[in-house]
Amino acid sequence: MIGNVVEEEFTQAGNWHLGSGLSIVLMLFIIVNMVVSTIFDKDGEGSVL
């Protein structure tokens, strides 16, 4: 869903700057979620849920 928006910014809109910015924001969001999941993983099994 968000990946489609990023792709459209690169291909259809031709807005490379916004596409790059959205890509970086998406990567940072994923990294933050991974770090938070690691912090709350008390038993070390790799599953927060």
The level of helicity is 55-70%
Main structural class: mainly alpha
SSE pattern: HH
> Distance between termini?
23 Å
The low-confidence parts are none
Please report the number of helical segments: 2
- The share of residues in extended strands comes to under 5%
- Sheet with the most strands, sense and barrel status: none
> Nearest-angstrom radius of gyration?
15 Å
When the domains are counted, the total is: 1
| Mean pLDDT level | 85
Please tally the β strands and state the result: 0
Shape: elongated
Task: Note down, in words, how this protein is organized.
0% of the residues are buried. The longest helix is centred in the middle third of the chain and has 24 residues, at 16-39. This protein has one domain (2-39). Helix content is 69%, strand content 0%. It is elongated, with a radius of gyration of 15 Å. Helix 1 (2-11) packs antiparallel against helix 2. It has helices at 2-11, 16-39. The mean pLDDT is 85. The chain contains two helices and no strands. The protein is mainly alpha-helical and 49 residues long.
Keyphrases for this structure?
single chain, 49 residues, mainly alpha, 2 helices, elongated
How are the SSEs placed, and which strands pair?
Layout: H1 2-11, H2 16-39
Question: In brief, what are we looking at here?
Answer:
The protein is elongated. The two termini are 23 Å apart.
